[in-house]
Amino acid sequence: MSKLAIRKYGDPVLKQKCKPVEKITPKIKELLADMLETMYAAPGVGLAANQVGVSLRMCVIDVRPEGVRQPLILINPKIVSKSGAVKEEEGCLSLPGFTAMVKRSKEVRVEAVNEKGMPVVINGKDLLSRALQHEIDHLDGKIVMDYLPLWEKMVVKKEIKRRKKEGAW
Predict the structure, then answer these.
(1) What pTM was estimated for this model as a whole?
(2) From residue 29, how far is each of 36, 42, 73, 78 by CA, in Å?
(3) Exposure string for 18-52, b = 16+ CB within 10 A, e = fewer
(4) CA–CA dist 58, 74 (Å, integer)
(5) What is the DSSP letter of 117?
């Protein structure tokens, strides 16, 4: 396993809709293991494949407290139902140092397959629901910045430009 570089806001791969995984190969399994290692090292609660430069519909999530690992590996995930709504602060590994208030469904039901090709159904509430929606957004080419009002996007972009100039992005 190896830690991968996380793509940051501005990288075109983050705006692309990811392609479905056709076949779960040893290479795909290795990438998923590397994604888990990268997510835990960041640290984060989720990571989509396009965040490490691979435009495939798969993500890893683990919302358990630190030290208690119970990762979800989701290939070709799709939200099949959602209910309720809640607006909460959310961060993103591709937008380090920034958070945004994002309105999301309180509960979601997601269907996917795991790394063994077995169908899985996840009923997510609260943080798990938010993480599922966030990662599936990534797979659809959508990021947290897309939820910000225009004025706030401008402030964030200005700060990113400053950080790039200082070599901190």
Answers:
(1) 0.94
(2) 11, 20, 10, 20
(3) beebeebeeebeebbbbbbbbbbeeebbbbbbbbb
(4) 6
(5) S
Could you give phi then psi for residue 118, rounded to 5 degrees?
-85, 135
Instruction: State the Cα–Cα distance between residues 61 and 71, nearest whole angstrom.
Output: 6
- End-to-end Cα spacing for the chain: 25
CATH number of 12-165: 3.90.45.10
Kind and range of the H or E element at 122? strand 119-125
Q: Is 30 a catalytic residue?
A: no
Q: Residue 5, SS3?
A: coil
pLDDT, one tens digit per residue, over 46-59 is 999 999 999 999 99
**Which two structure tokens, joined as six digits, stand for 33?**
């293991």
Task: Give me the residue spans of the domains in the chain.
Answer: 12-165
Q: What gap in Å lies between CA 4 and CA 159, rounded to an integer?
A: 25
Active-site entry in 135, 152, 159, 166: 135
Would strands 72-83 and 86-91 be described as parallel, antiparallel, or unpaired? unpaired
> Taking the CA of residue 138 as centre, how many other CA atoms within 13 Å lie in the half-sphere pointing to its CB?
35
One-letter amino acid at 72 equals: L
> What tokens were used for 64?
């358990």
Q: Which residues of the chain have pLDDT under 50?
A: none
